[in-house]
Amino acid sequence: MTKIILSIDGMTCSACSSGLEKYLNKQAGILNASVNLVLSTATIEYDEKTLNLKDLDAFIKEAGFTSLGEFKELTLTTQNQKDRYLFIIFTILALLIMYISMGHMLKLPIIPFFNPHTHKITYMFSLFLLATCFLVYGFDILKSGYKNLIHKTPNMDTLVSLGVITSFLYSLYNMCLTLFTSNNAIMNLYFESSAIIIYFLKLGRYLDKSSLNKTKDALKELVTITPVSALLKTNEGEKEVTIDEIQKGDILIAKPGMKIAVDGHILKGSTHLDEAFITGESIPVKKSKNSKVVAGSLNIDGYIEYEAEAIGKDSAISKIVKLVMEASSSTTPISRFADKVSSYFVPLIILLAVTSFLVNLILGASFSKALITFVTVLVVACPCALGLATPLAIIVGVGLSAKNGILIKSSSILETAAHVDTIIFDKTGTLTYGNLRISQINNYSSYSNDELLVLTSSLEAHSTHPIAQAFNYYAKENKLSLKEVTNFINLPGVGLTGTIDNAEIYVGNEKILTKLKIENPYKSSENELTLAGNSLVYVVLNQKIIGLIGVKDIIRNNAQEVIANLKKQNIEVIMLTGDNLNTAKIVAANLGITKIKASMLPEDKTAYIKDLKHQGKTVMMVGDGINDAPSLASASIGVSVSSGTDIAANSSDIILPSDNLAKILTLLKISQETLNKIKQNLFWAFFYNALMLPLALGLFKSITLNPMLASLAMVLSSFTVILNTLRLKRIKL
């Protein structure tokens, strides 16, 4: 299976995006397709054995749109000088056509040459020519409307096109009647309606461009975070090169004030780097020889030379951008509801418009009045606001999260997070720093302490568990020479085993004794270590305990504050750990956590989480992205505290590249505000249609709409949704 993000041209409303999404998902070989209207992208998972990029491009073309190839960068659509000049010209023409057609009704001074009573021909032809200019100006709208109607995916442009062409042709018919017959139909000309409908739609899109760009700001910052050039160290000295020229293994230079160009590690020098773009933390990080550096980091105060390791798509920032783009393009349950409504909405409006036209005729209304109602219904009910309601808020929410060091893999998770009522924390490395250190060694063997630690550390060197860090640190500090280990086996939730010098060694927690059926004569020592807040590591050789080692950790600085804040939000907090109950109680008491589950194997944690979900709980699990993988996967939302460079390998739903647990509070705030904005947007979109459609149908005799006012109302509804969404960027976090 291969996943690709394609840039799409030709989408104008939610009916476009939902229509294309449906069409793609019907094609053999496509496993899943998600189309984003605002970003103009399609995220497609497909079987590379049966399909290739050309096939995908062909499917998109068949659906009535154009593939611009694989997504490379987030482009912000801007009005160039030609667009601005055209808009100014057509604004003047719009005022002119309104003055000519309606000036006499408003008792404005009439230009004799355009008087409909004395100069019929010049009056009609001036309106005809001006309206024709607007048809040319809006040809892209008409073309899109026709194309999508032919491909059975009618959209907003289809509604507008039907209304504009119908109004124009009817006016042309009445113009011919006036010219070639005795029938005086000059008052039944609606050329200005065709023109002004297109003008207002163009006005809306002109305003939307800058407004929509603001919703993409956070994403754009990610895309442009890396510099365009770097300093390459050569035999001749420094040489400035572009990012594309950098090869893996090149030695690059970063001086104070410069950005790191690619991922790598420092060969020479030390400095402080600002990695806020990836961690959301504003405090610079100390870096020295052999430290990892990430592309886009800002060099604060030192001179460093670093070796390029990951470039282009392999860099951490590229993975983050892809992650954020995929999240922005994915769909939420509430957005799927909106898309489903929108997909049925356009055909329903066409049917309603035709019905209103026929009913008006049957009830004795003039053809002209019936036609005006038909056009007004088509124009006023364009589902643009409905289509923008969800994706706009999702893009701002996902972008805002990324800007604050919270990487979300799917937008549906952002919606789910707003409903979380239970949060489970792993202890070691999550509620604590995971920087474990050996605090006490109880040696029950003839080995010296260092010899005992050589055996233990040799085994622990093969483990990724946080406890192994304590032994690795001890071995380095005391310059111990580790021994070769054969037959190494990881015993999940229990410990490790392997052969050293032809002897089978076991290390692990108290469960290792149960597994080996060994009596424990050191209960008092175990209790002492436990009461002091230690995690316990037993060392077993030849079915005999030869050591009991205490390992201590430090509670995170802000963990207590985060737990207290979660409780204020009526969120239940639970701690799960593989440690024994006494050790867990000490940590929990310091944090104010009352519900603890200790001595749990990975499968026990997973079963416990599933049980909570069966009780109707929405469970967030916070832990290590690798060691807690089963628990993270089984929770409603899995959150891992992980290094920013481990993004691709991480299987959780949300990644916190920094170790700041306060980001969970930020995540909950963003998710709740995003969901609120989506609900508000949908309310205003539905309220608008619920209000305007009856007016367009003429159900209220005292208030009527014409096509021009309908098009203005349509623009204002979309603009209201955009402005409401932009308020999301100003929330206090």
Write up this protein:
Helix content is 49%, strand content 19%. The chain is an alpha+beta fold. It folds into 5 domains: 71 residues, Alpha-Beta Plaits (2-Layer Sandwich); 258 residues, no CATH class; 85 residues, Calcium-transporting ATPase, cytoplasmic transduction domain A (Distorted Sandwich), CATH 2.70.150; 132 residues, HAD superfamily/HAD-like (Rossmann fold), CATH 3.40.50; 116 residues, Calcium-transporting ATPase, cytoplasmic domain N. A 7-stranded mixed sheet has the order 14-26-25-24-15-22-23, with helices on both faces. It has a 6-stranded antiparallel sheet with strand order 6-5-7-13-8-11, with no helix packed on it. The radius of gyration is 34 Å and the shape is elongated. About 1% of the residues have low confidence.
Give a concise summary.
With 733 residues, the chain is an alpha+beta fold.
Report the radius of gyration as a whole number of Å: 34 Å
* Largest pleated sheet: 7 strands, mixed
Number of domains: 5
Average of the residue pLDDT scores: 83
Strand content: 15-25%
Q: Terminal Cα separation, in Å?
A: 39 Å
- Number of helical segments? 25
Low-confidence stretches: 643-649
